[in-house]
Amino acid sequence: MDEQSTAGLNEQTKRPLGQSMGLGGDPSKLADYYNDWATTYDRDVGETDEQYGLPGSVLIALDAAAEQIPSLRDTAITVLDAGCGTGRVAVALAANGYSCIDGVDLSPEMVALAERRTRPDGSPLYRRLESGVDLTTPPTAGWVAHAELVVVGGVFTIGHIPPIAIHQVAKLVKAGGVLITTVRPGYYDTTDYADVSAAFAASPAADLLAEFESLPYTEDSDGRYFVYRIN
Questions:
Q1: CB 87 within 8 A of CB 126
Q2: Measured at the alpha carbon of residue 159, what is the angle toward residues 11 and 59, in degrees to the nearest 5?
Q3: d(CA 38, CA 10)
Q4: Got the DSSP string for 35-83?
Q5: For residue 150, what is the enclosing H or E element?
Q6: Which CATH number fits domain 3-230: 3.30.499.10, 3.10.20.600, 3.40.50.2300, 3.40.50.150?
Q7: Checking CA distances to 125, which of 32, 59, 81, 90 falls within 20 to 30 Å?
């Protein structure tokens, strides 16, 4: 894995993330890798908000979307955390009042950790969780047009899913809803995400509501954040 792919990461994050980037996007290899990484994942990416900035940056992107679509401020809307991992994005969303959060991920062990997360009142953080979900393939009927807000955090990464998968994750969003994606700089610079995103936003399927070129991602690395309205 070249240095550009993991530029800005501290060594604790660079080593396991760099290894995952070398799996060529193979779903079975990725599932196995994240199953093994699950128990130390939160420690490795950063246990505090300052160390792992992605969830907080998702909230910034969501706030920008809500400026144009006020219904997103309704904390009773359905939210889908796509590629939920151990649940860090959902924790941030729940802290801001969102009560109907579902999650999908490729890794059963990651989902098992997400299932253990609770709200301050002791109730489960997630309403519904499913593992074994490959975001590069068409969603199953139960997830099609599922949520008013879909967040794909930390998934558009080298060796994980290709930019063209944006068309599959968009199918998870209800018409008129919002899709938020996070993109690591090395991924943006070495793939055709920019072209795919521009074509997607220029099509009848979606509009680009906001793009942030540099918001916190990991402790030592910023990322790009995209907000699309799905038509």
A1: yes
A2: 70
A3: 19
A4: HHHHHHHHHHH-SSTTTB-HHHHHHHHHHHHHHH-GGGG-TTSEEEEET
A5: strand 147-156
A6: 3.40.50.150
A7: 32
